[in-house]
Design a protein that fits this description.
The complex is a heterodimer of chains A (178) and B (228). Chain A is built from seven helices and no strands. With 178 residues, chain A is mostly helical. Helix content of chain B is 29%, strand content 25%. Chain B has six helices and nine strands. Classes of the chains: A mainly alpha (178), B alpha+beta (228). At the A-B interface, helix 1, helix 2, helix 3, helix 4 and helix 5 of A face helix 1, helix 2, helix 3, helix 4 and helix 5 of B.
Chain lengths: 178, 228
């Protein structure tokens, strides 16, 4: 297949889905549009030099890279996001008065303890637990970790077991299906 | 009782603490990781850095789409392809780029290809060709002749002195008509900017490139263009 035919074929198959892909990465529709076009522009420019068979894998590589570059560009001048401090445990004020000081101290204390126990987990267990708590699917975590779904489940299972042993039963921890 | 909010606060604190230690991975590092060419120690260090950048985790975690098949609503017709991406125009832009690389004195080129069309401002067609008038097109034949009814892609040759750039388009009266929202980073020695076509109403414009260094910016070049 000639170069233009390859490009035509790839563009027609992937263009719409590429935009959806970028939207799923939480880019705005306008940004997703730009990113998809930029991806194909770079793909077009690099196609002559590409020698592999898996053109879609090459396109994927470019797309993820284009996203990274946009993240970097945004990061440079992005205002610091408002972060919730571990020390900031004040909730909405109670009617007729401020938050309960005893409750605040207790929350601060158990967050510090939680922090220490999470930080002490083996790195993979900590990462997998963190991503799972952020609602990532096992398959997606496995992709990030470059491991198997079973390995991810096992890591999360071990992490929850350790935390429960140290901190008691925690409802917020994910249940790992078999 | 430990809640999900407690976990969120803990992970956020970890992110805050680690962000200073772990810069955002470079393109090369990302490629090396996804290609599996890092050592196990390097890959492990990379994963730890990833955790600090949730937006990058999403970029890696999200499955890449399967190709649409003919008959699928996502599969573009030949007509749609022609409308969205005119290969001849794109090839022209590429030749233009290669010419620019060969002529060191030439620092900027305006090229045009069809921009993606969804329900945003980029879909608005606009009659008229964008023509490079002088200066930037020295030594390049037909460099400025571009097709009409499309958004524009501007290529600027990057300077060694700057990593970040800003682009402005001013009309003949000097009024600012367009400004790149975010700092632009050079890629492959070029800076690429998509300009919605409808911003370029018929008339003369000046496209200005600035190099950014901290709070300082330096005007690097002016490129007079005409839209007709």
């Amino acid at each position: 297949m000639k170069r233009d035919e390859v490009f035509n074929d790839m563009y027609r198959r992937f263009y719409t889905r590429m935009i959806k892909f970028f939207v799923r990465l939480r880019w705005s529709p306008e940004d997703a549009n730009d990113l998809a076009q930029e991806t194909f522009l770079r793909f077009f420019r690099a196609l002559d030099e590409y020698r592999g068979d898996a053109k879609w894998a090459f396109l994927e590589e470019i797309a993820r890279n284009v996203s990274l570059n946009r993240i970097r560009a945004q990061q440079t001048h992005k205002r610091q996001a408002q972060l919730v401090s571990i020390d900031d445990v004040s909730g909405p004020g109670e009617p007729g008065g401020g938050p309960d000081v005893v409750e605040i101290l207790a929350t601060k204390q158990h967050r510090e303890r939680l922090y220490a126990e999470v930080a002490a987990l083996p790195p993979r267990q900590r990462r997998c637990l963190r991503l799972r708590m952020q609602e990532y699917k096992y398959e997606d975590i496995a992709r990030v970790e470059q491991t198997t779904v079973d390995a991810v489940k096992s890591a999360i299972r071990d992490a929850t077991k350790t935390l429960r042993a140290k901190l008691g039963d925690i409802d917020a921890l994910p249940e790992v299906d078999r | 009782m430990i809640t999900k909010s407690d976990f969120d606060a803990v992970f956020q604190k970890m992110t805050e603490e680690e962000r200073a230690k772990h810069p955002l991975p470079t393109s090369e590092e990302l490629l090396a990781y996804t290609r599996g060419t890092l050592s196990e120690e390097e890959a492990e260090a990379f994963r730890e850095r990833l955790m600090v950048y949730p937006e990058l985790v999403r970029t890696l975690a999200e499955p890449f789409p399967e190709p649409a098949q003919p008959g699928d609503p996502d599969y573009l017709s030949e007509h749609e392809f022609a409308r969205l991406w005119r290969a001849p125009a794109a090839r022209g832009a590429l030749r233009l780029w290669q010419s620019v690389a060969a002529v060191a004195a030439v620092v900027a080129v305006v090229a045009g290809v069809q921009a993606a069309r969804l329900r945003n401002e980029l879909v608005q067609p606009h009659g008229g060709a964008l023509t490079v008038l002088s200066g930037a097109a020295r030594g390049i034949d037909d460099a400025g002749t571009l097709s009409a009814n499309k958004a524009q892609i501007l290529y600027f040759r990057a300077s060694d002195a700057y990593q970040l750039y800003r682009v402005e388009i001013r009309d003949a009266g000097g009024k600012l008509r367009w400004l790149s929202k975010e700092p632009l980073r050079a890629q492959e020695e070029s800076i690429t900017v998509f300009i919605p076509a409808h911003f370029l109403a018929p008339g003369k414009y000046d496209i200005v490139l600035y190099g950014l260094a901290g709070a300082r910016q330096e005007e690097l070049e002016h490129n007079p263009v005409r839209v007709r």
